[in-house]
Amino acid sequence: MDLKKIHSIYLLGIGGIGMSALARYFKGQGMKVSGYDRTPTILTSKLENEGMEIHYDDNINKIPGSLDLVIYTPAIPKYLHEFVFLLNSGVTVKKRSEVLGILTRDKRTIAVGGTHGKTTISTLTAHLLRQSGVGCTAFLGGISKNYHSNLLTSDKSDWMVVEADEYDKSFLQLQPELAVITATDADHLDIYGNIGNMKAAYQQFAGNIKTDGILLIKKGVDLHLNNLKGTRVLQYSLNYKADFYAGNVRNHDIGYIFDFITPEQTINDLELRLPGMINVENAVAALTMATLAGLRDAELKAALPLFTGIERRFDIQFRSKDMIYIDDYAHHPEEIKGVVASVKNMFPGKKITGIFQPHLYSRTRDLANEFAQSLELLDEIILLPIYPAREKPIEGVNSEMILSKILHRKTSVCTREEVINVISHKDFDILMTMGAGDIDQLVNQIRDYFIKTRS
Question: For labeling, which of 21, 191, 348, 387 is most exposed (least CB within 10 Å)?
């Protein structure tokens, strides 16, 4: 596919975080960009303000004519009328991952994969490259607070930073020069069937790294990587000796100061202005990628404190003298466990109430026990109904399935519309909202409620 011959692009699921980054990229290349999504959001509104035409009903009559390329996310249902129509229209139709593979093929690509931490590591890596002057183009899985976008571009740099998404085996389209694997906890079992098949896909992803490339893997991740040809395998860690790790970690203001230890040297007293020890670990991975891409010590030390984070990643939305409200994208049991542990570490002894929206019926079914165990770290748990995304309901699978497995904690289920009323009758020091569905549309409402009642 010759992208130079493409002038008009249509995206099915344009409001998705990965799809919207592609939409912004092609718009910036001077192409006409339009699309469909199920519901309007803050992000789709921004895309429309940037000049993209978007509609929100599944209507083939609203598809523009003279299209050169259709891009779709596998998150859309295959029975969508527009999708079926376009498949049979004669227009070139490609998955998002295929297009990303084409865009990165001739670039020096850094691909960040793993069950958790992809967005933080890739965004911080891109930030370090950009601040250093090396630059990069980056397709991010979240909105960078530094750049107010999920897309960074550079006309001068050959480096490209992307998330290596394991869903639907999307990451197998990539052939990176540098790659990270953060974790291989069970997820997307609707695609893989079992964790063994999922790990086999990660091994295949590692095998796609270019000759003489480097794989950075978190110490302790269980993958068989003996058959990699020409690829160096390095490890990173937090506080445990590895090829790259953080040592002498100290709390400082809202973040940390730590030493970055590499095979060649130690860079002392790096400052990270993000809460949560998990972010120190993420920073080690990002600093390693930036080091391997050629950044100097002084550049790392200057750029790291300037990183302000990502929307919906340990995102402190409100803080008063007697309570704190934090929003986070956590939607997997290990992510919930990690973010709650980080909150407890930062604010010991505080009473924490969490509002969690399960994402996908299949994930809820497959990991119900694990969700219950992670949520039990909270003092009180409020669940919203399952966000279905691309799935149809599964009989017997609902939020109550998780609640039935939670012991010794106050629990309840409420709708999105009831949330403000419910929390107005709760007693807590910290409120957390967590999930990957449309719970993000509650964040401004909750923050505004606290500004009115707790300021």
Answer: 348
Q: How confident is the model at residue 84 (pLDDT cuts 50, 70, 90)?
A: very high
The reply to whether 315-454 shares the fold of 3-95 is: no
- The secondary element (H helix, E strand) that includes residue 44 is helix 42-49
Pure H helices in 326-435: 333-346, 361-366, 368-375, 399-403, 419-423
- Give the domain 315-454 fold: Protein-Tyrosine Phosphatase; Chain A (3.90.190)
| pLDDT above 80 (res 283) | yes
Q: Is the CATH number of domain 3-95 3.40.50.720?
A: yes
Does the domain at residues 105-306 carry the CATH identifier 3.40.1190.10? yes
Q: CA geometry: angle at 240 spanning 236 and 241, to 5°?
A: 70
d(CA 390, CA 38): 11
CA separation for the pair 93, 1 (Å, rounded): 11
Q: What share of the chain is helix, strand, coil (3-state, %, to 5)?
A: 35, 25, 40
Instruction: Pick left, alpha or beta for residue 223 (phi over 0 → left; psi -120 to 50 → alpha; otherwise beta).
Output: beta
Taking the C-alpha atoms of residue 143 and residue 97, their distance in angstroms, rounded to an integer, is: 19
pLDDT tens for 157-211 read 999 999 998 888 899 999 999 999 999 987 877 888 998 999 999 999 999 999 8
Cα 113 → chain centroid: 10
Comparing CA positions, the residue from 356, 440, 350 lying closest to residue 406 is 356
Structure-token pair, residue 433: 């909202």
φ/ψ of residue 147, rounded to 5: -115, 0
Structure token digits, residue 401:
């399935």
Q: What is the pTM of this model?
A: 0.90
Domain ranges of the chain: 3-95, 105-306, 315-454
Three-state secondary-structure class, residue 315:
strand
What's the CA gap between 447 and 440, in Å, rounded? 11
Integer angstrom CA distances of residue 302 from 33, 77, 131, 177: 37, 45, 8, 25
